[in-house]
Automatic annotation (TrEMBL):
<keyword id="KW-0963">Cytoplasm</keyword>
<keyword id="KW-0808">Transferase</keyword>
<dbReference type="InterPro" id="IPR017945">
    <property type="entry name" value="DHBP_synth_RibB-like_a/b_dom"/>
</dbReference>
<dbReference type="InterPro" id="IPR006070">
    <property type="entry name" value="Sua5-like_dom"/>
</dbReference>
<comment type="similarity">
    <text>Belongs to the SUA5 family.</text>
</comment>
<dbReference type="Pfam" id="PF01300">
    <property type="entry name" value="Sua5_yciO_yrdC"/>
</dbReference>
<dbReference type="InterPro" id="IPR050156">
    <property type="entry name" value="TC-AMP_synthase_SUA5"/>
</dbReference>
<feature type="domain" description="YrdC-like">
    <location>
        <begin position="4"/>
        <end position="193"/>
    </location>
</feature>
<protein>
    <recommendedName>
        <fullName>Threonylcarbamoyl-AMP synthase</fullName>
        <ecNumber>2.7.7.87</ecNumber>
    </recommendedName>
</protein>
Length: 193
């Protein structure tokens, strides 16, 4: 399949409310449309994850962050950090689906440094809810085979080849999560690579 065909297939399934497996710049992930409450429920079921653990959102461009988050930092800082292996935590805006992480006023947002992921979010024209492609509490995955146990529950799995160095535990850390919700302050919630 051609790259654009793969992209259109992924968009089709996401818009249908399905969950897809895909590569990011750090680890493999599973994603659905963040504004689709039923699809969010599916992600939690697939991962066997408690619903009190938040999902991050992935957007295709810096402008979209302003739509779904209350940004507390300069546009230049956003552009310095993104795209990249970071998840920035801000207060959510009213535009974001209230059923996504209803237990917190905050949301983590990222733009992976991965052309496919950026195009996918742009083509969907809304944020993707994104989490690691693994059962909750198991290690992150760097190849599609490492999460083959999830394949039956995914509409499509996109193989972007191996990510990082499988022998290095650092490569399985995922993105660095930075809390920027309070103006003038920041804290690292989770170190990544």
């Amino acid at each position: 399949l051609e790259w654009m065909e793969v992209l259109h297939t992924a968009v089709h399934f996401l818009k249908q409310g399905d969950v897809v497996g895909l590569p990011t710049d750090t680890i493999y992930g599973i994603a659905c449309l963040a504004q689709n409450t039923e699809a969010i429920k599916k992600i939690y079921e697939i991962k066997g994850r408690t619903e009190s653990k938040p999902l991050a959102i992935c957007v295709g461009s810096i402008q979209h962050i302003y739509k779904y988050c209350k940004v507390t930092v300069s546009d230049q800082l956003l552009r310095d950090l993104l795209p990249g292996p970071v998840t920035l935590v801000f207060e959510r805006s009213a535009t974001l689906n209230p059923d996504l992480n209803p237990f917190t006023p905050l949301v983590g947002v990222r733009i992976p440094d991965h052309a496919f992921m950026q195009m996918l979010a742009q083509k969907c024209e809304e944020p993707l809810a994104l989490t690691s492609a693994n059962l909750s509490s198991q290690s992150s995955t760097l190849t599609v085979d490492e999460f083959c146990n999830l394949w039956p529950q995914l509409a499509v799995v996109i193989d972007g080849g191996p990510i990082g160095d499988r022998m290095s535990p650092l490569c399985r850390l995922g993105s660095t999560v930075i809390d920027l919700a309070t103006p003038g302050k920041y804290s690292i919630i989770r170190p990544g690579w």
